[in-house]
């Protein structure tokens, strides 16, 4: 897979690949990084290399998904800052040193140049997207008695309806979204909620008697374009009822709507509240019949809008969705990836790997396999994410391979979406590999995908550990911990406990026990050290038990006995199995003093195993009279505390009666 593919870039170098040879053009365009892209594609891909977007600054190459997101935000922020400075002070950037000329590197002029009150000045302000200035100029023209042409007035309505009567945002269309690791495992439904249209994410809603409605009412004559613009603006900014009412006025004036307006009206019909799903569907069918009456041919967005609306109808929408697909193909409109995405969302809204799951995903894959897709809908980049989510829920590895094969067909990789969506896709894919594939194949995918394609989160590493456990390949656990640290999971307690549990659960050959002990010591240091950004994590009781037993089995007795002090320090209770292993170690080293210290620890926690430990010490160790007396006192204290607790519980029971 080429390095460029991993970044979802929508551009390529100007080269052609014929067979196994690369054909270079006579002249390269002066686009950014042309020669670098050529070298990248003409050389073998290094699966251990960082993604291309991060290779300009090796010192800052990220090692986790959080760092990569911060890197991309910082890079885009720098671009925006540079663009802001250039456009704020254009007089300092007049020298054009590029050959040929590169327009995007030159200042853009956002200030009006025409000062007088005229229609030309109004047109200039509309072109510059100055909402308030355009409205003010329009009002000045009316006050001066100047008639504004219908074409210019419609252009002003276009501006007002698109931006919802507000000034456009000056953030260069870049929204900073903080995506934590937990959000990477969010469901597709959550991702749909996070994807909002331009008007929605700015919180713009349609207000009655706004400038658009006022100017529309002042127009001496209105054509179909005027009505269509108003209708689409109302739907865009969440005023579906007003849009449907205005459409009635359009019909009364014997005008016809265009296909884009009908698409908005279909969306408005689905957004109307207090109507049953069946009523909404019948209203959508009425709109389609009106399109036929008005000789308006539907386009791809018409059917995609219908399918998108049917998702809100839940189970009722499944049959209409299939009817829509059949009608779409009957009139010769080729579905886009977004079309299939909407169908998948409708049929797998509450999917589970239980009985009764829909089989439509298999029909979809049979239909799209081997096809090359190009962007035709804004939601085309949602298909691969939703398809892989269904593969994961169905636990169908063969289907997942088909989806991945489609992704790597032609330029389909460009439609995988943003960095967040790509991580979601590959996380689901690798999760399925861990559960269903042979371990050697899984490890090959691990080498090829991580970290050159995506940065794994902690759950991905846990899935891999479980796959190694099933395949009896625990010898790789220390390497997985080393990789996890590189990917920023040093302080993920769930991951550390999983690693320690796998290493401490069973006995292993001496060489492997030594490697496990080194790994345990490294994990132990993460609980004792303090990161600059956070406090040292608290020791879980299970981790203390695992580290201690790993030290014992590797012969690191002194470090293991130091772990017992941590149980007291952190007020954690050791397991009976661990105490028995410590007693075996004390017996092997013929150290009755250590054995007595062990009994003291068990007595301090009033553990039931204390009595059994005492009997073992008395029977298996050579003790002095003083040591025997000390053991006797510990046994008496333990029995007294046990009897006190029993009497307390008996009194509680009698009081309850």
TrEMBL record:
Role, per record: Mitochondrial RNA-binding protein that has a role in mitochondrial translation.
Principal localisation: mitochondrion
Biased composition (Acidic residues): 643-657
Similarity comment: family membership: Belongs to the mitochondrion-specific ribosomal protein mS39 family.
Alphabetized GO MF terms: ribosomal small subunit binding; rRNA binding
Protein name: Small ribosomal subunit protein mS39
Record organism: Sus scrofa
Gene3D superfamilies attached to this UniProt entry: Tetratricopeptide repeat domain
A matching Pfam family: PPR_3
